[in-house]
Every structure is written in C-alpha cells, then in structure tokens.
Amino acid sequence: MRPADIEVLAVPGRPALRGDLLLAAVSRPDLETDQYRSAIRRIALSGGESPWTQGPRDSSPAISPDGRWVAFLRAGEGKGAEGSPQVHVMPVDGGESRKLTSLHLGADAPVWAPDSRWLAFTAREAEPGRYGTEDADERTPEPAAEAPRLITRLDYRIDNVGFLRDRPKRLFVLDTFEAGEPEAVTPRDYSVSLPVWTPDGERVVVIVPHDFDRTETREHDLVAFPVDGGDPEVLAVCAGYADQPVYGADGTLYFFGTSHEDGVVVASNAGLYAVVPDGKPRRLTDVETVDVEPGSGPALPLGDEVLVAVRNRGAVELRAIPTDADGAKLGDLRVLHAGHSAVHGFAADGDTVVAVVADLDTAGELVVLGSDGPRVLTDYSKPLRDKGLCEVVELETTAPDGYPVHGWLVLPDGEGPHPVLRVVHGGPFAQQEWTVFDEAQVYASAGFAVVLGNPRGSAGYGQSHGTSVVHNMGTVDVDDVLALLDKALERPDLDASRTGIMGGSYGGFMTSWVAAKHPDRFRAAWSERAVNAWDSFAGSSDIGYYFTEGYVGADPDEQRRRSPLSYAADVRIPFAVVHSEQDWRCPLEQAQRQFVALRQAGVETEFLLFPGEGHELTRSGKPRHRVQRFEAVLDWWSRQLS
C-alpha cells in the first residue's frame, strides 16, 4: 500500500435494515477534491450492491418504521448551509429526495418517530454574528472581526469542533409531510445529544450534562422532552458518561455508560445500563471484563437479549446480553460474531442480523450473521487488496514483571533483515485492532517492519489493564512497549541495529519519553501531536483540566516528573516533532516547547507543522495532508534507518 492508496479505503458506515432493504453510506478519501466522498449504497441480502444515492456527501440513512421512507444527510459543495449536512427524505422505491432543512451549521443524523411521519435530530445553532451568520445590524463579520467571547467555564471548547458555548446543540423535530421550518424543543442554555423517541411518540429522550449543565460536569442525565411543549423529565441520573440511548420493545430504556463512583474518571470500561423506573440505572454488564464499544452504534434490543459491540484483545465482537443480566461477565455473553476482526456497525430486523465487519484484509464489509456462520455481501476492499497488503503476525510475550503483552508484527516483502518501527497508539485507553491499519501497511510496503501492540493502559483487556497507568504513566506501559519490540527482534529477518519509535497523542508522549529514558534502544524518534508537558497541558488542552489530574495527579512537581519535556536534554537521537496548527486536544504549544528544548540541548531536531488540521489529522484530516504526512514519515525513516 502506497501513500496515495488511501483513495481506495472504502469504509461503510452503520447500516440501516428494514425487510429486504439494507442501506449503508460508503466513504472514501478523494485526493483530487481534497475531501471525503460518500454515497448511500443498497446491499442485496443475497449478495451484491448498487447505488442508492450519488453523493457527493450523503450519510446516516434511517428507514422509517413503516418501511416507506428513507431519511438521510446530504452535504453540498458550498459554504454555510449549502455545504453543511442537511436532512433529506425520499421514498424507498426511489425518486427524487426532498430537502427538509437549511440550517446554517447543518444537522446531525435524523431519527424517525414511531408514526413514520416526524423526525428528530440535533443541530448547532450559532449566536448571531458568529460562524458566518448575520448579527443584529444585518452584517456578516469575518471570523477575525467577530465580537469577543466571554469565557467563564472550563468546558468551553473541544478538538475537531471548536468553541461550544456560542453554538449549543439543540433538539429539533419536524413533520416530513408538512412544509415548514424544524421546531426547536430544547432551549439554548445547554447542549443535548443522541435523540431517541419514546414508544408513544410524544417525547424525545436526549443526553444532557448533569443538572442541565449548570456547571462543569463529567456526568450525564437522560432527559425526556415533550415535543408539544411542557417540562422536561429526568429519567436517569448517571454515575458517569452516558451514550447511545435506545428503547426496547417492552419500553425499557437502555444506554451505554461509565461510572465515576470510584473516583477514577479516565480508563473506565463502558457498560450497558437499563433505566429502572423511579430508581438508579442498573448496570447489566461486569465493570472489569466487559468494555462496550459505543462507536459501533447503539445497543440493539432483540427479544430477551440486547446486542452490543464489545472490545476484546484487539477485536470488536458482537455479543448478546440477557435483559435480566446483573453484572454479566464477558464469558457469559452469547457470541454472534468474534475472531480476528472488528464489528464497526450492526442492525437487525426480525431474525436477520447484519454487521459491518473489518479485518486484516478489509476496511469493512457488510455481513449477514446467521446460525451457519457469517455470509459476506460486499467486496468494497478488493481495490485495496489489489494494491497489496503486507502479512500481519500475532505477537505474545511477557514484560519483565511477568505480565502478558499482546500485539502484532506487520512484515515487508522479502527476506530482510528489515529495519523496524515500534508504533505506539494514542489514548492511552484505546486499542489497536485486528483490522487493516493504513499507517502500518504504508510503512511495511516501503520496507519497514512495524511492531504494534496494546500495552498496559490500553482498552480491551479488562479495566484493571486500562487503569494500571493511572498515576503511573511511563512505567509498566514502557516495559510492555519494549518487551513487544524485543519479542519481534528475536526474528532473524529483523535488524535490531536499525529501529525507530513513533506514535501520536499518547503514542507521541511514549515516543518522547522513551527517546529520553532509553535513547540507546532506537536510532531516531517521530513524536506526533504529543503530550510533552503536563503542567501546561492541564490548562491549554480542551480536556486537560480533568485528564491531567486523572492520569498524573494535581501535584505540579509530579506533573513535571511525568513530562518528557523535563528530560529533553537526555535525548541523544535524531528527533522529529510533528503537529497540527489547530490541535486543541494536544495544543501546539506542546510541540513548540519540545522543539525548542531539544534544539537548545543540541539534539538533531526537525519540526513538521500541518496548517489547518486538528488532532485527527492521521484519521480524518484533509486527504492531501494525509498523503503528505505519509511521504514525510517515509522520508524521515529512510534517512534515519538506512
């Protein structure tokens, strides 16, 4: 796989299924337009697929309960409302779509009411005179000419979105049969998210920051808002974050959530909860062993079970939780799909269950899950395989303290001995998956063996695995990172004298840390969007005000002891500092401070800065920037590991 081959990475979104109608939006990077193109495809349950829409940016299909209509989002090519996602609806038997919204900042995914007539969605609403809207004097000021922002809270912005308090996310409803503007149901005082209709169609349940967001909080409530006016009702007060609410056929409200009751606000396994009338939400899953993946979509109640995606040792499995479960462990959950793969979306209608499944050969295919095993319906990744994918080998070893360490080796073609890159993922509470990883494939195709893994602090191996680095970062996680590298270097086709380390975010922290603490292990380092100094990160990052204390603690001396910047003078290998100008998760000052400290210490250092990008450059940045980054990575390592 070459850098420009990201164009063939076709990724299906979460599917929609009703009867024999199966729809999914498929997205691809487009280097010519420097955008992501997506269109909705119809997939036949017998196999094969065809266009449902032509795009260029269609997403989030939702089929009405009566099976007659499809609502979806469509974004155009212009600015403002024209270029923002807007709600459209079209009949299932084809024809022209009808545009239902023209919101300046666009709309989120539409959700059908039980009557198949009304839709609910959330959308950001800008203060007058901001983000290209007219002010009180009917002027549209440029961003630099907008009025100043008065900031009184810590949670005023977030990476990849921007400022929050001047454009709250409100709940809207609209009648698809009547022309007219959508009606706002919630006030501008706070943001809401992830709407779901009550079974009677009279209210919409959304997630609201606890106590209606009156002060900074890391807890959520589930609140029902009557669509025809009236006071909201708090249905559940959650002990942590809440995500993806959904109703079962019997009227039970389920949601994914975490608990902060033990005082730990980071590295928390997400579980499945049920809302008990007039009581505390009941957690159906075990805190230690079950880690639900909300990114794969909401839970799916089916009879006396609820389907959920679960992270497990690099896999994302589809499992069934009994509705009467109480702290069910991972081994107690019925398996619908597991193995060396990741379920990135799923849907069901009647006895038919479909999923988007990615593995080491695909970026995602539509699969029917039946009693006779999975049946693959699509072949979106054939162009990717035709480009050539490198072999992936599983690695297992132990750290010096005997702790098991798990990961993978991506091998270049040829006999070797190959130079080696130890690539560390971000998070840290995330997991490297059993799926095509474009970065590793690009590096391996260029001749570098790539070592990947999930050291302590990662997700998917139990909550105690994730929390092992809380107030302990840069200790046992380092042991695991190096132990996995040592295991790979036992192979005669790898060259232990030509090794490099690289990573982004937490992986960038690890790279900066190891380059200072273990400089003799590597020839060079590539540290990207890293946390290098916890003291300034605490105030400059969008999440720093709680993330730093959660992982490192509040003591300034301890923050400095855990900061790679404190040891920059100990680095003795060539070092690349890589960052994005608009990164608010790990702000630019983290890179600037590290670059200056390294240069002043006499370290051979380069600083690569991407304009206009945020923290997600490598995953969802501009396609051309992603290719340019790949080219820079390969150039760096060809110079350092030759």
UniProtKB/TrEMBL annotation:
<dbReference type="InterPro" id="IPR001375">
    <property type="entry name" value="Peptidase_S9_cat"/>
</dbReference>
<dbReference type="InterPro" id="IPR029058">
    <property type="entry name" value="AB_hydrolase_fold"/>
</dbReference>
<dbReference type="InterPro" id="IPR011042">
    <property type="entry name" value="6-blade_b-propeller_TolB-like"/>
</dbReference>
<dbReference type="InterPro" id="IPR011659">
    <property type="entry name" value="WD40"/>
</dbReference>
<keyword id="KW-0720">Serine protease</keyword>
<keyword id="KW-0645">Protease</keyword>
<keyword id="KW-0378">Hydrolase</keyword>
<feature type="domain" description="Peptidase S9 prolyl oligopeptidase catalytic">
    <location>
        <begin position="434"/>
        <end position="641"/>
    </location>
</feature>
<dbReference type="Pfam" id="PF07676">
    <property type="entry name" value="PD40"/>
</dbReference>
<dbReference type="Pfam" id="PF00326">
    <property type="entry name" value="Peptidase_S9"/>
</dbReference>
<protein>
    <submittedName>
        <fullName>S9 family peptidase</fullName>
    </submittedName>
</protein>
